[in-house]
Amino acid sequence: MRSCPVVRFPPLPTTSRQRFTVATCVHLHAHTSRHQASLVNVPALLAFDEKDYSIAMENAPGRPLHELLISREYFDRAFKIGLRVVAWLRNFHLTPCSDHDLIMESSQPFKAYKADLQYTRLFEYLSPPQVDVAERFLHRQIKNTKSVLHGDLNSRNILVDDENRINVIDFEQGQVGNGIHDVAYLVSEFVIYSFFQNSDPEEQIKRFWREYDWEFRNRLRWEEYRQHLAFQVLYRLKGPSRQVWAGHLDEPTRRQIEDWSLRQFAEWLL
């Protein structure tokens, strides 16, 4: 297993105004599209101030889904909640957004920043032929402007109360691109916690995909999902916030997960 040097987030490439614009526009879009998937709520924005770039939203009750995920006792409950969020994502990505172009303009620098952080910096783990495929894959993702994305849909931005009511928050990293990125970023956590549970993640990976994409036989989209997932799982282990997502794992489990990611690259970066 490769040694893991200290990694820090590079400076943000966007201004406070750009991040404020993205946060408000994507949040408003998500709040509007939530009606198509009522099992997941997006808190309403109560006020926002363009002078100091501040936002106030209604109270979102519950605790982060992350707390359920890292508990062996509640993992099954967390999985069912994850399926509901992925179903909401499908509707969110398919809903046309009137601020699409404004979001795209304001988020492009940050999209490139995240692509470098979550993908390009992991090319060192690939063989030369895999790097060639990965570069073409990443080029397609950067050029994709189809859907408005959450951009940071992790289990800390999903709140769950005792009645299993769900709130999705924190849209500051929103961008325009391929919705599969959002799905894979969330599912990567479930892959990691499957290893924590000593279980095979494959069936969960498929269940999430069936919830998101009814065209399960669409080979190209399925391949994109698996490629995104291989990168995102490895990023959770190696990225600047790795202590949050993998800090609870022992060394043998970390090696298992890294080996799994490398096998995924060998299978899907063809």
UniProtKB/TrEMBL annotation:
- Key word Acetylation present in the record? no
Q: Which UniProt keywords apply?
A: Transferase
Q: Per the record, a Pfam family?
A: APH
The reply on keyword Acyltransferase is no
Q: Which molecular function GO terms apply here? A: transferase activity
Q: Give the taxonomic lineage as stored in the record.
A: Bacteria, Pseudomonadati, Pseudomonadota, Alphaproteobacteria, Acetobacterales
- Aminoglycoside phosphotransferase domain residues are 6-218
Protein name per Swiss-Prot or TrEMBL: Aminoglycoside phosphotransferase family protein
